[in-house]
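Exam prep: given the inputs below (a chain plus NAI), describe the expected output before reading on.
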Amino acid sequence: MSHFTANETYRNFMNGQWKASVTGQTEASLNPARTGEIVGYIQKSNAQDLDEAVAGAKQAQKHWRKLSGAARGDMLYRAANALERRLDEIAETMTREMGKTLPEAKGETARGVAILRYYAGEGLRSVGDVIPSTDSEALMFTTRVPLGVVGIITPWNFPVAIPVWKMAPALIYGNSVVIKPASEAAVTCAKVIECYEEAGFPAGVVNMVTGPGSVIGQGLAQHPDVQAVTFTGSNEVGKRIGQAALARGAKYQLEMGGKNPVIVADDADLDLAVEATVNGGLRSTGQKCTATSRVIVHREVYESFKRKLLQRIGQITVGDGMKDGVWMGPCASEHQLRTVLSYSRKGLEEGAVLLHGGKRIEGEAYDGGYFVEPTVFEQVAPHMAIAREEIFGPFLALMKADTMEEAVELANDAEFGLSASIFTSNIGRMLSFIQEMDAGLIRINAESAGVELQAPFGGMKQSSSHSREQGRAAIEFFTSVKTVFVKG
Ligand SMILES: NC(=O)C1=CN([C@@H]2O[C@H](COP(=O)(O)OP(=O)(O)OC[C@H]3O[C@@H](n4cnc5c(N)ncnc54)[C@H](O)[C@@H]3O)[C@@H](O)[C@H]2O)C=CC1
Ligand SMILES: O=C(O)CCC(=O)C(=O)O
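Solution:
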């Protein structure tokens, strides 16, 4: 049974109220699998709406920060329960709104529930250390305080998990939040906000404003009453946000792109490596910052790996993620589809060899959706655009290496450093990969994607602002440390 109601209008959430934008304008959020289907309408807000949300958040934070961690945690537990009760409905909305398959959407929503519960528990954990003073009569310790109002700018590829993994730690440590979700997934985000409302958060602690990134996102980055901004999305936008925040001395955290490699050694379990490459590269239609995009294979096993990979990719079913048996949904938007197709053309122009896919999938069964074939190129040289730039689609670039040293060198030859995998049964190779690979996530005999909520998440090089999200690491961004020296 479907739990989904199409065509509703979702308003902004500010000061505990659902409120239409002062612009009077809305925009439709469309289903990328059936381009005629409107999933819902969202507000096209302006700076005046944002000012109102931030003013409410500023006022509400004064009381919120004074509650005990246990009381704040209680609210997060209730939000988790509400999200769990609505899991099927919210997952279905996600699939309709951005295309990932329903099982993936359910898994992500369940992950949102687990994240909320993890951070609810954080309300009872320690926040500082006692440090011996050189003065034997003094007590010296650290404590932490919230930052104030936190601005949250999120992408469309994880419409539940990313908003939750930024909001939950911000809230538990005593901040209020104003979130601007990506318009492509704002209906799903509005439903997550309804869960916070149902949990009974005080008015103004949780706020959502939808609208153009250049107005609401940039507005958050520049707003004098927003003390910190956390962002996930493209490098281009992330850098702009970082610069705007830095210019006024606000704290910022950026999680951006990846060009994640997997190395397949000559002693690898090839079946395992193939399965992980397919899952890591093509699940969610390759639209993960942690997705595998470069596959560096030892010459000795290259041909057998390639044969097995193509055989497995040939079995992938592409279609509407709501349908049973569909393994891969559409690209999330026409923009994403065009990007993938443009990289297929670039790959051919640059002299790489197309082994599979590369084309849009059309026809009656596809309802004009943004479907693309899983795409594999070989003979990819390190200078080619398909080896260097983030594509964010179901796209694998195969490269050959003669030695493990060459493989790691190729893997490190990238602007990004988010996630990297190796498949090998040799412990020495595993250890040197851990040492040599420049990436925030090192994965041994496991796919490059799929992070765990209790562990730090973030990248090296251009993949992030060098900060970490999730797990206990989140406390570093969402609080300020005070060092206290007390003498009686
Ligand atoms: N690291 C990741 O997880 C993601 C990476 N991307 C990358 O970005 C590419 C483009 O996707 P987009 O959706 O266009 O990403 P984007 O970076 O434009 O959007 C991410 C968020 O930033 C907002 N935004 C857009 N322009 C802004 C501005 N000037 N100031 C402040 N906020 C702004 C958007 O509304 C959205 O909420 C993808 O092809 C992919 O390569 C996209 C989404 C997630
Ligand atoms: O791999 C994952 O589970 C997380 C990926 C992610 O954070 C992203 O794509 O933005």
